[in-house]
Amino acid sequence: MAGIRLLPEDSDVSQQVRAVALSDLVSDDDRSVAADSWSIKSEYGSTLDDDQRHADAAEALSNANLRAPSDYSSDKDEPDSEAVTSMLGFQSYWDAAYAEELTNFREHGHSGEVWFGADVMEVVASWTKALCVDISQGRIPNHVDDVKTEDGELGDKLLSSWSVLDIGTGNGLLLQELAKQGFSDLTGTDYSESAISLAQSLSERDGFSNIKFLVDDVLETKLEQEFRLVTDKGTLDAIGLHPDGPVKKMMYWDSVSRLVAPGGILVVTSCNSTKDELIQEVESFNQRKIAAAQELEAAKDEESCKEPIFRYVSHVRTYPTFMFGGSVGSRVATVAFLRK
Ligand SMILES: C[S@@+](CC[C@H](N)C(=O)[O-])C[C@H]1O[C@@H](n2cnc3c(N)ncnc32)[C@H](O)[C@@H]1O
Known about the structure:
Blueprint: H1 12-19, H2 31-42, H3 50-63, H4 69-73, H5 91-108, H6 117-136, H7 152-159, E1 163-167, H8 173-181, E2 185-190, H9 193-205, E3 212-215, E4 227-233, H10 235-240, H11 245-259, E5 260-270, H12 275-300, E6 310-315, E7 321-324, E8 327-330, E9 333-339
Parallel strand pairs: 1-2, 1-4, 2-3, 4-5
Antiparallel strand pairs: 5-9, 6-9, 7-8
This protein binds S-adenosylmethionine.
S-adenosylmethionine (SAM) binds at residues 94, 115, 168-171, 174, 190-192, 195, 217-219, 233-235, 238-239.
Function: S-adenosyl-L-methionine-dependent protein-lysine N-methyltransferase that methylates elongation factor 1-alpha.
Protein name: Protein-lysine N-methyltransferase RJT34_18663
Family: Belongs to the class I-like SAM-binding methyltransferase superfamily. EFM4 family.
């Protein structure tokens, strides 16, 4: 792990969140325990200081740094016993969290947590738009920070051919932000039914009822469609926090490689992996796929395909950076990969 993340100050709540980290849980059968742990967080007053509670959960997500990239780049099947896991890796956590957010929405009209903050969400959406416009115009950029966004009709016309899937969409607000940027073919999936109900309610309230939402587990996706743009903000992070995180991450890459259309892009936003760690993870996935293809081709005595499935294209360079331990780093990384 690169060790360049800003370490947030400890709070009582985050200590309790860590105290209930589920490192000793090994299967989804134990999810009920994870659900119980949610009640510990809920004790923060019947008044429920949502902002504080969610800030603490976000802190837990970013604090639960996993492991050196070399660990998950190996082919071992066994979960790393030293890996730091958390209740945020369990579906029961998200079911409880979004059930509560749904209640808060119905009772108070609250939109709920914007993971990594509204600023990051806006940057992800506008940066992704610039990248897609660039690709539509035949430019595969090394970076797009300086690219002028095509506003108005041309931009909208170019974006209309981009089908978008946001995996682990939560409240679906990133899709609303992408709609504001001009994307029109938008779908969000999440394995939590409450998240999908919340996302649907919010999109209707906010005038984005054209966005489609479906309950779907990305690791066992039922979607047969391919999308030209797939986005992930915080979902890979959450998946990696399950005790079987390394195995689940391999399943994630397999699944996502089927969801992104050839020539399409995947944009991952993470607070748990640096840009280099995400690239390393993709490289490991590419290597695994190439080795598997070679084995298959060798059996058939044919030429094997050595082309990587995903190729790094660009990353956001404009997030605020922090100095920590002599290194400069950013708390959030957004990286785009091009699908072969
Ligand atoms: C950190 S939250 C981020 C939510 C949303 N992307 C956002 O930025 O607000 C992680 C999300 O991933 C979802 N999730 C985790 N594992 C998933 C899986 N295997 N399939 C689908 N959704 C998943 C959770 O339900 C949760 O909504």
